[in-house]
Batch of 2 targets.
Target 1
Amino acid sequence: MSGPVVTGIGLLAPNGFGVERYWEAVLEGRGGIGRITRFDVSRYPARLAGQIPDFRAADHLPSRLLPQTDISTQLALVAADWALLDAKIEPGAFADYDMGVVTSNACGGFEFTHREFKKLWSQGPKAVSVYESFAWFYAVNTGQISIRNELRGPSSALVAEQAGGLDAIGHARRTIARGTPMVVTGGVDSALDPWAWAAQIASGRVSRSADPRRAYLPFDSAAEGYVPGEGGAILVLEAADAARARGAHQVYGEIAGYAATFDPPPGSGAPSALRRAVELALADAGMRPDEIDVVFADAAGVADLDRVEAEAISAVFGAGAVPVTAPKTLTGRLYSGGGPVDVAAALLSIRDGVVPPTSGTTDVPSGYRIDLVRGVPRAGRVSSALVLARGKWGFNAAVVVREATV
Amino acid sequence: MITGIGVRTAGGNSTKEFWNLLTSGSSATRRISFFDPSPYRSQVAAEADFDPVHEGLSPLEIRRMDRASQFAVVCAREAVADSGLEFDTVDPSRVGVSLGSAVAAATSLEQEYLVLSDSGRDWLVDPANLSPHMFDYLVPSVMPAEVAWTVAAQGPVTMVSNGCTSGLDSVGHACQLIREGSAEVMLAGASDTPITPIVVSCFDAIKATTPRNDDPEHASRPFDRTRTGFVLAEGAAMFVLEDYDRARRRGARVYAEISGYATRCNAYHMTGLKTDGREMAEAIRVALAESRTAATAVDYINAHGSGTRQNDRHETAAYKRSLGEHAYRTPVSSIKSMVGHSLGAIGSIEIAASALAIEHGVVPPTANLHEADPECDLDYVPLTAREQRVDTVLTVGSGFGGFQSAMILRRPTGGVR
């Protein structure tokens, strides 16, 4: 049985505007993390983030969409445009009910809603925008992508903190298995206004380092939190036979397996369910651990979480038996966008036969027993990859991508 | 298979109270009491008299959880108790959660905002006054996590946030996970507690909610000629869902089987609806097909019936388009006339009403319907509940973003009860 295939990618990341520019930056080790410039961050205890520089929505979207959308939705709409363009889906290639949208979102249109909260409380209810009712909520990206591209098939929006982006891809795959031949899927987040920034700091996991190269060091003995970022990726996912039938000009690879699990309640002392997510995703793909060529790690950058992830990987694959990498060290953690960007990176690793490195991290505790790819890209054939994403409170998601045989 | 139900709504502090309200035909809407509503265009809501201490939440849980999470957890516990399922006998890795919500932690967000921003004066909110729970309000997937912790679920856990169809779609999502074998038992449902100034003003801005402030008890008037918008509400409903074999093996009481579900998007407008009901009709058609149910077998339609001018005509058109002549012979009612519109939660609350209609053989009425809109010419069960055997229910939802969802519930077969 073959799973659905990825035929288009639209990606916007702090270190690359567009999938090829992102990939080039990742292979050259260029990062997009810096001091926040959107507002005066000097009074905040954390000041570094992965920001997409010079994004002007008006260059990419019709003017009527601008006042009704948050920056996160503008980024999502551009990513979806690029993904559909990349896939060269011609009008009429699919009936409207045969095209769905499944996205993940963690923060909603938060900067937009912050502005409306401010208007409400400083100017009164009549100042609140007519767009607030739908610019804020978590379904906004799915709804706007559906409308802009006339996609009327089964659609949904999922939230699972940083794991949600992989859940969206998993649910898109499920939707295709249930009979919808094409689904636009992925996740994009941006929450870099002062209130959302304060809220992210409240998670207790955001790095307070002032050095962009040393602030986010997953799997390092000096790990002290993560750097949040903005952006994400939207993919065009098609049933393999549908892609074949329309003569798709390119196939990046197959979404071969997916699973999601949830950790036991805090304080229960029971082990994390991450390992089971890995095993279930491999089983779903019908693959053995030794058939996986690289693992794109969640890479929390928090010592306890890094240890749990390293243990799960070494338990399934054996000590140091599979290359592990985290190119998100160059972008920061992108919430719902993180998983889909890693899926894109995994597909490009397959295409180009190269594993991108984890930047920054130097001192991996020997007890982690993982082969973390550091320094320079590692060349070699890549035919499959495992992508992991975890969300605060206990969400675990795993996706297996594989070279397509179409 | 629905084997456990927990509900909290205005006028419904238990599943039993909720059902009594629906069959009485009276409305639980009132003038907003949570804050001074006088600056707002719409000053009416369906507020729940929810007492977290009385509901058994611990002081720690009350401090930690937003009101919407509290509703979800209380309903989850009620559903679990109602199901009689001993969760410690089920492999926790086979138990999942699917929770719907449209605006999630709006209440706590607004409270925190006022503290951090000096009541809206500062754009650069003050990180010194930050609540340790602020992140939980920014990213609402803490809600399904809280529900998962009530039964130590370790299977797939997710939040489905599709605006006002969230409560239908979260349960539909759970059914898909059970069917494909990703879970054996799902705790599924939805919760929203949006009666807070920011949400009231965002619906004021588009005139979606009713300005009928001089008559709050009769302000929710779906299908009536004098309807002027919906009445904002809060509430939650949670279900224990199991597959047929498991429910039968353990001799569970089964309220209803969810036999079909489908969702479509109108790709038309974030808040507007076309008059033809095309996409909702398609969702209904596909849900019936999945259920292997003929349109003529539907004997009750639990409507979205929000009471806005455009919605009630839109869905009336969708019923005619999907069910043909049978639409005219089928009772249609909107419980939003009694419990208001609790956004993402209402879809699950309406599933509860649909299951209870099958269980009790009673069709709940549309309250406050005295004179139907001439363009709404179906049998909307005005004012008074109707005793009638109900085997198959169609329940629908329509929401911002263009989501149109439909679900079929039917009387369980095979001697499960």
Target 2
Amino acid sequence: MKQIRWVNAQLHNHTVHSDGKATVPEMVEALANRGAELIALTDHNSVSGHPQLLPACREKGVHGLRGIEVTTFYGHVLGLGVKEYIDWRGYSPECPEKICRDIRKLGGLAGLAHPIRIGYPAVTGCAWLYHISDYDAFDYIEILNTSDFQFCRNDLAIELWINRLRAGNTHLAAVSGLDYHARPWHGKETVTWLGMDSGIADPESAALDAIRSQRAIVCKDSLIRIEVRDSYRNRQLPGSRFSGTAQELLLDTAGKENLTVVLWDQNGSQILGTAKPSMPLPRIEQFLVVALYRGVPDVLNLEAISNPFFPDCTRGGNHPVCNN
Amino acid sequence: MKPLSQCLFSAAGELPYGQKYYHISYTFEISKEYKVLEVLLEYEPEKRTKPPKDLEKEVREAARTEIFREDPQTISDLINLCPLKNLINLAIKGPDGWRGEDHKFLCRREICLAEEGSTPCFSNGKNLPGQYELVLHVYAVFTDSLRYRVEVRGL
């Protein structure tokens, strides 16, 4: 049985090794001081900061995750786990899947970065201009990119992700990205809480496994636990594929009150009501995504959103247990 | 006293207004190992001082198709955001692979490649003899034209 530990992760960060203002140790210190326990380094088309990352993280008592942001003219793809420069000249607007294939060949996970964002002439290269034929090429979508609230449509990014789940790309994980550049306006935006398997000794591998397994909850700050109790009385974590039906929603809102619970499944969405520790669930079709909002369900009020649960799977999965 | 460096490669060119999403590649041979390679990229002008006539139209179109917004406040904010700075990145490949890429958008870049203390964005390593490649990634030219120059010197 897997022992899962929830880890505060920042998965999209830049330093002086691209257009960030902080050195690697400065970036690690700044994010560790915000509470991050796992810090990725994803400089634009650069891995030259990697040798500094893990020592800087050890110094602060946190984990590092090496990666890159493949930064092309037509959009950005995150490659968590990639430790090499990628020559991006051959990527055409018609085939972003090739970027993902190259990332996977190098042992990384491919993530669609800030999918709905302005580009040329305001911020050249930042908009997603590729045509995606096969979303299965991607491992995850950055549903909340908080570097620029005004010109980055996180509401539409969430909608894109839900629509892809409904279209059958059920493996797509959802994460957030601070897109840290040490700019003055960085606040304490969002955190991806990763359910890392304590049985995997290497933290980088455990983090990639958590994302690949969709064991993640994106929260405004502190962890809001979102679990489901199935018809066999097992507690299920986000990303779980299980054979029973989803009976009950289990919430630990970390002391936050008056949160509105919204559910998405294959057929639509509904407001379940004000969050309580235990809430009976209606019939769920194919997958369940749970979001909690401070009051009105608007992306600016989002407090937490889970990765999908998959009830009624004919092949029941294992049942991870939390140890924190 | 700093030893005299030797010019190993240089090139220059001019790009027209509106050039974007374009790669320029230069390859050259280095016949011996150098402790330090200094790579210079400079271009001018740095930015446009007056917005082009079609800026508002382009911003409006980008806002409509990329973030699905058309309201006047958003368009106005975006126009104010436009720096109109010419944008070129430089990537460098050596005989043993890519050394890195400089995603900084400064109009003058002085890059040092060495076993220790290479400029951030570029990996440390020996500057082996063999074929090198410089790639200019031209993101955008907002000025009427842009003149650039690249030079590699060995120490």
